[in-house]
Amino acid sequence: MSALWSVGAGLLLLLLWVRHRGLEAVLVHHRWVFVCFFLMPLSILFDIYYHLRAWAVWRLHSAPRQHAQRVRHIQEQVREWKKEGSKRYMCTGRPGWLTVSLRVGKYKKTHKNIMINLMDVLEVDSERQVVRVEPLVSMGQLTAYLNPMGWTIPVVPELDDLTVGGLIMGTGIESSSHIYGLFQHTCVAYELVLADGSLVRCSPTENSDLFYAVPWSCGTLGFLVAAEIKMIPAKKYVKIHYQPVRGLQKICEKFTEESKKKENSFVEGLMYSLDEAVIMTGVLTDEAEQSKINRIGNYYKPWFFKHVEKYLKADRTGVEYIPSRHYYHRHTRSIFWELQDIIPFGNNPVFRYLFGWMVPPKISLLKLTQGEAIRKLYEQHHVVQDMLVPMKSLEKSIQTFHVDLNVYPIWLCPFILPNNPGMVHPKGNETELYVDIGAYGEPKSKQFEARASMRQMEKFVRSVHGFQMLYADCYMTREEFWDMFDGSLYHKLREEMNCKDAFPEVYDKICKAARH
């Protein structure tokens, strides 16, 4: 009873302090208070709900039976929109705050919202080595479903809450992408409801133009209702090798060298300054030295990027065996390194042991509760960007990131980019090795100004025939945007499928110049 009184008294004092300081001041300058006491417990409730729902679906086998019915409901909504005169663009009815993207789409308020409740794994075909899923299936949900069966997918993008639909309509990458390409390159078929309400399946051999145009289209060609993704056999561990490297030229040479080795199941780099990095390579294995097993995903463990930094500070190499699912979601608990800006003491051992089981707070809830003051603060003094550039331009790109942003750590992830039709492909006629340079945090560059600095970055990326991930803030003009991306197939299909009255152009949906 005394414990309850203590908790109650603590909460009362907290509320009085919040009232004294003002809610907005607390949310801006002491956001950890709100996150720790409200969002983290609420995130746990969210997880419990989705786990119970997934368990119920699995027990009742309701997903395959109800999928066709749910798709028909989507078709009915589209046909109803046509009967109403097609007066407004359509978009999914999923609230903007539920997406992992930090951008909140204002178009949801003006467009016709089509409700799409599709969040189940539909079928695992072991003979074809393909899993068929609905678009709202998350990476955490999918790996938890497949791993006990002995399967995984070739590219498991970081963060549990990333959905299949978002990774197809946008894009996704992981440290295995130097072998398998982007998430879209592991998909073998899509099913979409089009602007006329029809249901269409597309693959490299069936409606192939649509198949190649869907990735990066951000839902502006139709509504994704199912996808088929390749599977590969899962193994118990990832044997990971940590290699500290100093000197920018040596870092780029080592990273490029390891990225070209197909015997590496995984390749990743974390840069802690302009001339300090740790290059990590991993191989899948079922055998492990017990003394070297590191279950990095356990709630009380250090955040992964902090754990990696120890090898740099000690200037030593190392080998560990990380359970596969822990490895796939190694950056989830700290949201890469974004959580350190929200909960500065989050990696403290005391906090990890007492409250680490509630980390991370849901990104969707962080968005929902951020308020206008925090949104403007983040927009002007925070950057979350992934730029995809040819590997041959890596050194020059890192120097540009350093001058324009000066944000560390920087994430380096290699990927192979095939010369397929669509919005994103190499400049030449052959497959090319690219690298994703991820910058997440507060820029330390003295001349940083959000719009001007990002436009400078975008100009550089266009100059080396690179691409900007579309989940982030994009400041390009329409002409600049279509200079970066190949819109020939995309515009051809929008004309043929009568999309112009049904969906906005992708530029109008995601670019700040169009949305403001």
TrEMBL record:
Pathway: Steroid biosynthesis; cholesterol biosynthesis. The chain crosses the membrane at residues 32-52. It catalyses: 5alpha-cholest-8-en-3beta-ol + NADP(+) = zymosterol + NADPH + H(+); lanosterol + NADPH + H(+) = 24,25-dihydrolanosterol + NADP(+). One of its GO terms (cellular component) is Golgi membrane. Its cofactor is FAD. Keywords: Cholesterol metabolism, Endoplasmic reticulum, FAD, Flavoprotein, Golgi apparatus, Lipid biosynthesis, Lipid metabolism, Membrane, NADP, Oxidoreductase, Signal, Steroid metabolism, Sterol metabolism, Transmembrane, Transmembrane helix. Residues 60-234 form the FAD-binding PCMH-type domain. One of its GO terms (biological process) is cholesterol metabolic process. The keyword Flavoprotein applies. The keyword Metal-binding does not apply. One of its GO terms (molecular function) is Delta24-sterol reductase activity. It is found in: Endoplasmic reticulum membrane; Golgi apparatus membrane. Its EC number is 1.3.1.72. It is a single-pass membrane protein. PROSITE patterns: FAD_PCMH. It holds the Pfam family FAD_binding_4. Catalyzes the reduction of the delta-24 double bond of sterol intermediates during cholesterol biosynthesis. In addition to its cholesterol-synthesizing activity, can protect cells from oxidative stress by reducing caspase 3 activity during apoptosis induced by oxidative stress. Also protects against amyloid-beta peptide-induced apoptosis. Belongs to the FAD-binding oxidoreductase/transferase type 4 family. This is Delta(24)-sterol reductase. It comes from Ploceus nigricollis.
